[in-house]
Amino acid sequence: xxxxxxxxLHQRDAVQNEAKSRRDSNGGSYGIAVGALTxxxxxxxxxxxxxxxxxWFAVETRNRFEKKVASQLNQKxxxxxxxxxxxxxxxxxxxxxxxxxxxPGYAFVHMLSSxxxxxxxxxxxxxxxxxxxxxxxxxxxxxQIDDLQLLLQEKRSFSLxxxxxxxxxxxxxxxxxxxxxGIVVEHEKEKLxxxxxxxxxxxxxxxxxxxxxxx
Length: 215
What we know:
By secondary structure, the chain is of the alpha+beta class. The chain has four helices and 19 strands.
């Protein structure tokens, strides 16, 4: 596994496009049945479960529409998590900080599994679909969202890597990243890899000096 610094935008996009191609060729992710959008309505939706709590789902957006989609969904009353990076661009006469999506083409929405929610989300300009496999979608485990939010909140340096799903799973003990979970890969034992399985994306952070425990 060769990690790539987040500051290198061109290389980052190349890694993500390669991972997206692999995901698309495999059909995407898998999970609860959602059905297809036909004539503006959804069919084969799973039954709503009384007392069920909202879950996180990944949605795919048009290129450069991530922020517009997130804004529209917020206006509709949905909680949206759009991971952003701040990049500093320098010109001859000025400098400017620009926020760009960490995962271009993707956002995460917190919602109840209901016909009204699916309809409202799919009827959003710039939104393509829920990340799916054969007409099904999978809820993103809340721990994956929590860990990603913690990493961004703490502004720790990290790298974007090709998707990783095998290796020794560990948890950080102590410090500002306490509770963060990920995978230690055999040939990169000083890095902790955090993966978002539904969109086939991985991040890696240096773990030298951290106390770890097996999960």
